[in-house]
Structure formats: structure tokens, C-alpha cells
Amino acid sequence: MELNIYGCRGSIPSSSPNTVRYGGNTSCYEILVHNKQIILDTGSGFRNLRLQTDRSKIILYSHWHHDHIQGLPFNSDLFIKENSVTICSALATKRPFRNTLQTYFSGGYFPVDIVKHLPNLTFVNFNELQKQLSPEVTVEWLELNHPGGAAGYSIKSSDGKISYLCDNEYELSQFDELSQFAKDSDIVIWDGMFTDAELPSKKGWGHSSIEQAIEFYNECNVKKLLIAHHDPGRLDSKLDELSSTLPDGIEFAYDGMKVSV
Ligand SMILES: [Zn+2]
Ligand SMILES: [Zn+2]
After folding, report:
1. Ligand of minimum distance to the alpha carbon of 206
2. What is the CA(229)–ligand 1 centre distance, in A?
3. Domain containing 142 — which CATH number?
4. Residue 261 Cα, ligand 1 centroid: separation in angstroms?
5. pLDDT score, position 98
6. Residue-level pLDDT at 38
7. How far is the CA of 82 from the centre of ligand 1 (A)?
8. How far is CA 203 from CA 18, 150, 162, 190, in A?
């Protein structure tokens, strides 16, 4: 099982000489497991991901805030008709989800009706996806605390387990459910957009803090935690400074990061 990070910036791509180390692309994570390529979200980082012809290709969406979908039509591999791609989200059934993506990428918002023009994209319901992945891979989900909703996922195989918990405004009342969900994960990807000092002015924005990542990690049984969904204004120098406060087992995610499980 392999995790490759193509985008871990929150909200909007952040391109500048001061964000090159952690990267400016928005959410896109690739998990290679057995003969499957599972892609979590298609933020701007999706443009740099190559679809693998010898694996079944699945895009699993946490939700459809723009930073999680905006990269979809910019991946040239998607326009190769032999590249069949399954698209799914646990947050909605296939028809309303398809309509949402089609509205975002057509008409007054986007020049090409991408959903209509790409017959190689197949939308499926989450329960159908589970059947498609089993028995080698198990995917579970839970609803996160985020305006408009967001799905957290865990992807498990005989190799290990990776949990994806962005975007989420962490509350202590979530601890039991989240820690049970993420239990025994080799990697947890955590939404650490803010610091504790910033949280009071960002209440209701749907994101957690770096310090909450540490609290969560210390209290639950997971091997490694990667803090992601970095604030677009958080420069490399600040992330480096904050990085020195992180205990062993916790790291800031960065574009280009690869972790094997
Ligand atoms: Zn987001
Ligand atoms: Zn969001």
C-alpha cells in the first residue's frame, strides 16, 4: 500500500516562492493498493497525477467544495477514452452527485460540459463501490463536522490502513467515534488548517487545528499522523517553525510526499 500526495493545501491553490516546499496544490491523495488506484479528491494537485492503465481507477470524493474538485478537468489522462474511471462519494448517491459536478463544470462556470463529454467516467453509489473493491480492499466512511457535510474515509487491506479525515472541525464530542474509526491506522491524514490561537475567529469554518492533531494522536492508537489542508497563507517558513513543535509520529504533509505502508 502506497500513499502519494499531490496536493495538501486548503481552500485555494497557493503558488509562490514561499510555498514551494510544502506545495500549493489543493487536496489530492493517491492510494495504490493491490491492483487499484484510489484517488481521494481532485483538487488542483490532480493535474499532476498519472492514471495507471493497469489498475482499476477510482476517484472517491470527501465533498464538493471547490478545493476538492477543481482539478478534475485538468488531468489530460482523463481524456484518453480507454481510461475508465469510477467516481463515487459516500456523501450522496450517484445521480445528485453527478448533477453537482456537471453544474460546476459547465455553462457559466466552465467552458466544457466535462461530465457529458467524458463517457469513460462512471458514477456509482458507495455501496456498489464497496462491492467492487472487496475482498482485497475495504473502504469505510463516516460523516465529518463540516459546513455542507464531508465524508471521512478509511481504506484497509492486508497491507495496512489509511484514514482520511479532511475537512473536519474537530470537537471533543467526536473523539470516541473518530478514534474508533481511525483505530490501528498506519496513517491518518488530519485537517490542521488552523492553530489553536486562530480557531476562535474561525468557528464554523469547518476545520481543525494543528494542536488538536497532537491531542488526538496522543490519545488514540495510530502509527503516523500527517497534518494537511494547510492554510493558503501559511508559508514554508512558518510551517518549518511549527514543525519543530510536533512530536514523533506527526508530520506536516507536503506535495510529492510518498509513504509506504
Ligand atoms: Zn477543503
Ligand atoms: Zn470543505
Report:
1. 2
2. 7
3. 3.60.15.10
4. 25
5. 98
6. 98
7. 30
8. 27, 17, 28, 18
Which ligand minimizes its atom distance to the CA of 67? 1
Residue 11 CA: which ligand is closest? 1
Q: How many residues does the structure list for the chain?
A: 261
Q: Determine which helix (DSSP H) or strand (DSSP E) holds 156, and give its type and residue range.
A: strand 150-156
Q: Which H helix or E strand runs over 224?
A: strand 224-228
**Cut 0.85: pTM above it:** yes
For 151-181, the pLDDT digits (tens) are: 999 999 999 999 999 999 999 999 999 999 9
Cα of 101 vs centre of ligand 2, distance in Å, is 15
- The number of folded domains in the chain is 1
pLDDT value for 75? 98
> How many angstroms from the chain centroid is the CA of residue 157?
18
Domain that holds residue 35: 2-260
User: Which residue type occupies 192?
Assistant: G
Percent of the chain at pLDDT > 70 equals 100
Please enumerate in sequence order all residues whose Cβ is within 8 A of that of 73, keeping only pairs 6 or more positions apart, or say none: 105, 110, 112, 114
Measured in Å, residue 105 CA sits from the centre of ligand 2 at 18
